[in-house]
Amino acid sequence: MGPDFWLFAAVGFAAQLVDGALGMAYGVISTSVLLSAGVTPANASASVHAAKVFTGLASGLSHIFYRNIDWKLLALLSGGGVLGGVVGTYVLTSVPGEAVKPYVVGWLGLMGLVILYRAWRQTRPKVFSWRSPFPLGLIGGFFDAIGGGGWGPVVTSSLMGAGADPRKAIGTTNTAEMFVAIATSAAFLAALLTGHWDTEGLGELVWSVAGLIAGGVVAAPIAGWMTKVMPLRALTWIVGFLVVALAIWQGAMLFLPKA
Q1: Which residues are within 8 A (CB) of 25 and not within 5 positions of it... i.e. 6 or more apart?
Q2: Which pLDDT score is estimated for 172?
Q3: What is the rounded CA–CA span in Å between residue 124 and residue 130?
Q4: Which of 44-58, 171-185, 198-212 is the least confident region?
Q5: CA distance linking residue 19 with residue 31, whole number of Å
Q6: Helix (H, G, I), strand (E, B) or coil at 67
Q7: Choice between 207 and 135, residue whose per-residue pLDDT is larger
Q8: Residues 6 or more apart in contact with residue 8 via CB below 8 angstroms
Q9: What are the boundaries of each domain within the chain?
């Protein structure tokens, strides 16, 4: 068990703690850290979604226990998210990693700004009505697969902007994310088995993924409880600044001349 395990266990714990409380940021934070370490976008997304299968299960059980779920909304969001995740995986594995990385970094930076906007305005951008959860899940699943994170920022923000109960929006979005992660991971596996995806370097991420899983599973029960009791604005500021800073750093690494 190498040092990568403990580093990513800490990352997974912090990311899941935030994700479970805010309904977003596990994928954004985890993917940002992996990209910052030089991992390709496809490998980063595949690794994060593999971890999400386990952390999503733990998070979903926690939110079910605390009754933070709207079951009809869960079914419709999950259906759209599964379809969007599969399509996004195909797109991500069809193009060279270096070609898509600037767009992924830009997307993560945008998500950080969305989170900061939420903290500043104490509101959420209204994109879709909660009465149309299937297309919302479709778009959230697509961008989640492309960027390795984005399900929560798209879905939770839109639900809460449309007036959904924050506790139900966060709990349902977190639980639906497990089904999206399963479908996206299966799509990555299919791309691997059909030779559609070049996985060079993926084997080196085993301990990183194991750490993300371990840290996230430990944090999930705590996060479910935090949804009920913790004021969220200060935590939202912290997450937003962290994601934007990571995106700026990654952008600098991409576009500044290398020594």
Answers
A1: 15, 18, 19, 115, 149, 152, 153, 239, 243
A2: 92
A3: 13
A4: 198-212
A5: 13
A6: coil
A7: 135
A8: 30, 33, 207, 208, 209, 210, 211, 212, 215
A9: 3-255
Q: Which amino acid is at 11?
A: V
Burial class (CB in 10 A: 0-12, 13-18, 19+), 134: middle
Asked if the model's pLDDT at residue 127 lies above 50, the reply is no
Condensed to tens digits (0 to 9), the pLDDT of residues 63-112 reads 898 888 999 999 999 999 999 999 988 888 887 666 777 877 787 788 77
Please choose, from the candidates 61, 57, 50, the residue with its C-alpha nearest in 3D space to the C-alpha of residue 178: 57
State whether residue 193 is helix, strand or coil: helix
In order of 7, 18, 115, 248, 250, the CA distances from 23 in angstroms are 23, 8, 11, 23, 24
Token pair for 213: 């899983």
pLDDT exceeds cutoff 80 at 14 = yes
Name the band, by pLDDT with cuts 50, 70 and 90, for residue 13: very high
Q: What are the tokens at 52?
A: 């999400």
Q: In angstroms, rounded to a whole number, what is the distance separating the alpha carbons of residues 134 and 105?
A: 26
User: What gap in Å lies between CA 184 and CA 85, rounded to an integer?
Assistant: 5
Find the distance separating the first CA and the last CA of the chain, reported in whole Å: 33
Q: What is the largest CA-CA distance in the chain?
A: 54
**How many CA atoms does the CB half-sphere of 95 hold within 13 Å?**
13
For 96, the token pair is 């060279």
Q: CA–CA separation, 147 vs 177, rounded Å? A: 14
